[in-house]
Amino acid sequence: MTKKKILFVSAEMAPLAQSGGLGDVVGALPAQLRALGDDVRVILPLYKKIKTIWSDRLTFHRWSMIKLGWRTMYSGLLSMELDGVPVYFIDNEFYFGHDQLYVDYSFDIERFSFFQRAVLEALGDPMDFEPDILHLHDWQTGMIPCLLDAHYRPYGYHQQIKTILTIHNLKYQGIHGREHIADLMDLPDRYMTELGVLKDGVPNFLKSGIVYADRVTTVSPNYAAEIMTDYYGEGLDHLLISQAHKLTGILNGIDVEAYDPATDSQIARTYDRVTRQAGKLACKQALQEEIGLPQRDDIPLAVMISRLVDQKGIDLLLRVLDEMLHADIQVAVLGTGEAHYEQALREIAGRNPTRLAICLTYDTALSHRFYAGADLFLMPSLFEPCGLSQMIAMRYGTLPVVRETGGLKDTVIPYNEYTGEGNGFSFLNINAHELLYTVQRAAALWRSEPVTWQTIVDQAMSGDYSWQRSALEYQSLYQLLGS
User: Fold this and answer.
1) Which of 27, 304, 465, 477 could be 391's S-S partner, Cβ–Cβ 3.0 to 4.6 Å?
2) Residues 228, 302 within the same domain
3) Shared domain check, 299 and 337
4) What is the CATH number of the domain that holds 298?
5) CB-based contacts of 64: which residues, under 8 Å, 6+ apart?
6) CA distance 196 to 437
7) Which residue range is the domain that position 24 belongs to?
8) pTM above the 0.90 mark?
9) Angle between helices 450-461 and 432-448 (to 10 degrees)
10) Do 223 and 284 share a domain, yes or no?
11) Is residue 268 part of a domain?
12) Pair type for strands 71-82 and 247-249
């Protein structure tokens, strides 16, 4: 197997800069690939947060000027090593010296236009690294394959570099006006067509990446199939069907060291598959006390850890939450989001103070205690490209209740009472009462068949949710691309 040189190009990387699952992937996958023998490195913007916290570890390499429309902008190249992974940064105070990762949609288009052009200028001699493969992530990097084709390969530069684009969420595509993007990217007219970067007459970064990249991946096999349908395709389904020959779904993993109930210092009592019953009971009682619910071990506790947005199925939960609580189930919700969802949860909690606890905050440590202390994990997403929470929950022996979509369908095997197989519960349609029925069925099983419940928990905790499995699949794809 030939050792490959791979550069991940991303807007996020945990723990340096993260707003969601993209950061988790880029924060974990490179180290796993390096362990398999590939020379994998990462490049991302030098955000204000990174510059502030990690300044003493940054090494300056060089600066250059990038022409961007009517502007000529400074671009610095710096680097550091993070857990054995070389990480490069593109520095520009005007674009990345903000408190937030994402500032304003129109401005973000310009910021990541600059980022993509600066990355390509940094390849080779400036960073002393010429990759075999550029592994690109989401719309913020989607124009790079086109820029390579337009500005570099015709002049003898980077001709051997292959490109892979990973779609983490098809909903976000990077769309702006034709004249503005043509100016920022300095693109000839031959690229500004419906066969090129345009979608319905306007430039679309993600669409451009799908067209010009050598390979396209998604973060779960089922999501790869779903996005080729009208319902999930976000207007790009016909394009994806035409590009199906280069589309692959590879399931994300989780950090099995950070999320390990046997060693987790943030939970009330550690436990493993052998000691889980006593351990989870202690964690449940501690969590109930912490969030203000009665310490009862005779009813199931269902939790939800989520951004409070429509994608996550919050409307489904709100529609039946009162009924769920009246069925003698405790529920706890952790997360922040849209104000009307937060207010609706407050109102329901006001009516049900002993059965519903809401924690409208982002608290990583508390999330660990939610995973460890719960019996059920609610994840009724309308769509979910992969999802990590359901895998984390299963690792802690908390059984997920999910809608059968995207990576949720790939990872959660619904319990079958005839075969005894399964690691959770699921429902098919976007229907609030299907969610309610599934939760009630799970709660009834928890009450009446404790031996069966523990068998399902054991099957959930036995799953392989590691990044190593995913890394092996990516490595095979890299080898195929380079052959």
Assistant:
1) 465
2) no
3) yes
4) 3.40.50.2000
5) 75, 77, 118, 121, 126
6) 47
7) 5-253+468-482
8) yes
9) 110
10) no
11) no
12) unpaired
